[in-house]
Amino acid sequence: MTEPWIGVITNPHSRRNRERRGHAQALRKVLGLHGVVRETTSLDDLEASIEELAGLGIRTWVCDGGDGTVHAFLNAARGRVEPAQLARVVPTNGGTMNVVARHAGLLGDAEAIVRGLVGFERAGREVPVCAVPTLELTGAEVDGDATLSRVGFSVALAGIGAGFFHKYYAVGGHGSRAMLEVIAKGAASFVLGTKPLRGVAPQAALEYGEEVRAAIEADVVIDDAPLPWMTYTAFAAGAIPINLGNLIRVFEKSGSGALHVIAGEISDLGIVANLPRMFRGQSLQSPDLFSNTARHVRAVAHGEPFRPVFDGEYLPELRAVELRPGPAIIVPSFDATRWR
Q: For the whole model, what pTM was predicted?
C-alpha cells in the first residue's frame, strides 16, 4: 500500500477557498493514496493537524491558502515538526497577494499544484524547487513579560507600511482596487497637510494621513550601528522582494542571507514623491532614510508601541523587537497549469 507523503492543510476561510464548494473533497480525489487532507478553522485545528501529519511521516506540506496560511503553518510547525521533515513547503496561490508562490515561480491553483506533485512522483522525476529566504522576528510584548517569536517573509513594524496595511484591511474589498483607494486617499491627505492647504483642508482628510503615516519614536540599531533618528515614518523589513497587487514593489535588495531594511524619516511630500519609485520597484530616496541590506536589527519603542503587520497578519503590540534572517524554506518551482 502506498504510504502518504503529501499533507494538505486547507484553510476554508481563505479568499478563494470560500468560493469553492467541495474543494477539500476535490483535493482528496487528486491525491488518491499519495496524501491526506485536513481542513483547519482555528489555530488549535492547525496545530493538531500538523502533529497528526508529522506522525504519519509527511514531508511535503501543502499550505492551501494565501501568504497568511503559509505564515500560520510555518509558525505552528515550529517545535512540532523536525526541520528535516519540512522537505517542501507548498503555497497554492489561494490568497490576495501570493507573494511566496510568486517568488518561487509556482503557478496554478491548489488542485493543479497537487496534481503536479503527484505527477512528478508517478513519472519518477524530481520536483523543481527554490530556496525561499525567511525573516525571524523576536519581540517583547507590551502586556507583561511575554516574548514573541515568529518567522515569515516581510514585516511592517511602524510608519507608512504598517499604517497602509491597517487602512487597507479597513477597506471592504481586497486586492489592487483597495490598495489604490488607500494610496490615493493617503497621498491626497499628505498634500492637503502642506502649509498652503492645511488651514482649509477637512479635518477628516488630515487625520487619514496621520493614521497612514503611523509615525513612532524609537531607538533603532542596524548591524550594531545606531541610526541617528528618533522619529520613524518608515520602518519595515523583508527577506524577499515583495510585489503587492502589481502596484507596490519593495525590498528589492533582499536575499543572499540578508534582509532589506527600510527605516527612517520621510516627509509627507517625500512619501508622495516616492510613489513612482515604489511602483517601479526602485529604492526609496530620502536624506533621512536607511534603505539597505542588514543581518540584525534591534529597536526599542518610546511611547507608542510597534504595531507590526507580518505577512499581512496582525501581531500583538511590541515594545522592543529584533529582526534577523531566518531559515530558508524549500518551495516547488513549476508551472502547475500544464498538469492536466
A: 0.90
